[in-house]
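Exercise 3.2. Students should predict the tertiary structure of the chain below and write it as structure tokens, then compare their answer with the key that follows.

Predict this chain's 3D structure.
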Amino acid sequence: MEENLKIEILFPEFCNLYGDISNMKYLKKCLPKASFIETAFDEEPHFVKEDVNFIYLGPMTESRQEKVIKKLTPYKERINQLINENVIFLITGNAIEIFGKYIENEDGSKVEALGIFNIYAKRDMLHRHNSIFIGEWEETQIVGFKSQFTFSYGENENCYFAKVEKGVGLNKESILEGIQKNNFIATYLIGPILILNPYFTKKIIKKMGIEEPKIAFKEDVIKAYKQRLKEFQNL
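Answer key:
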């Protein structure tokens, strides 16, 4: 039942670069009866002691990354437990790096991360990478954008989110984008991904137990998705 769903938005006051907090604004339109919990940075995450169905963490500045890592480190075992219990996570933009092993600065110094996945990131703050993306996820084409000062490296062959059709994966040499384990999805894609990809959004809602998901502004978002997909394919 939709009214029983609990969706936690972590640190929305600053984890919202590129307008990605609109992912949750759109999800609220799709699930108007669900409970949305906005957890501020100075609060204990709701997922620590309570069950939730969906956890969202969006992109942030590099200085905030380090603070979020310290904030979530005490809850690493709980996060692993929730991943193994098939709780849905959607992690967008550079928030993916928080769940890797470490983030390496240009001078070689490292910021230790949660170490949940066997990837690591390298920063290059003088060179921003911008690109479009098309990839395949569960027989669904995903579109999106990338804008980042970092790339990730390591092993995601057995836990990637989407296979690249156009664009780059974790890094410029990779054709595998993001991380997925069970219902944990982390991707560099920004956009926001839920608005740009209505079929993806529908599947995510279905994973929450809603058999017949209703997509907000269905005709408009599907039309925009198809048009964007066509334009990206022709670039």
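Discussion points: The mean pLDDT is 97. The two ends are 42 Å apart (CA to CA).
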